[in-house]
Amino acid sequence: MAFEPWFAPDADERIIVHRTVDGLVQTLEDRGAKRVYADGGRVIQTFLRAGLLKELTITVVPVLLGQGIPLFGELCAHVALTHNATRTLGAGLTQSDYTVKR
């Protein structure tokens, strides 16, 4: 059964909601997407589990949270990373770039 993206009648036509990762990937491929920005704990977890991430940029903010959604959560296996660079952003923030090893 094919899945059609859902559109609300008054929605911004630039916004498409997909209910599956496969549907999202197909739309991105159809549109010729080369690089996609993904953010949010559960989105990152889903993309890591599906093997869809080639690069990760991790920003560390100097605040320890008492609760919330873990960024990486439980994964099926270890995800090996190669460190590319780290920079200091000020106010104690650091940002590191990694390549996901295949």
* Total E-strand runs: 3
Q: How much strand?
A: 15-25%
Low-confidence stretches: none
**Main sheet: strands, sense, barrel:** 3 strands, antiparallel
Structural class: alpha+beta
- Strand arrangement across the biggest beta sheet: 1-3-2
Mean pLDDT: 86
Summary, kept brief:
Helices cover about 20% and strands about 25% of the residues. It is of the alpha+beta class.
Please describe what this structure looks like.
A hairpin with a 2-residue loop joins strand 2 and strand 3 (93-100). The protein is globular. It is of the alpha+beta class and 102 residues long. The relative contact order is 0.16. The chain contains 2 helices and 3 strands; from the N terminus they run ααβββ. A 3-stranded antiparallel beta sheet has the order 1-3-2, with no helix packed on it. The protein is 19% helix and 24% strand. The protein has helices spanning 21-30, 41-49; strands at residues 55-60, 81-90, 93-100.
Which helices and strands appear, and what pairs or packs with what?
Blueprint: H1 21-30, H2 41-49, E1 55-60, E2 81-90, E3 93-100
Antiparallel strand pairs: 1-3, 2-3
Keywords:
three-stranded antiparallel beta sheet, globular, alpha+beta, 19% helix
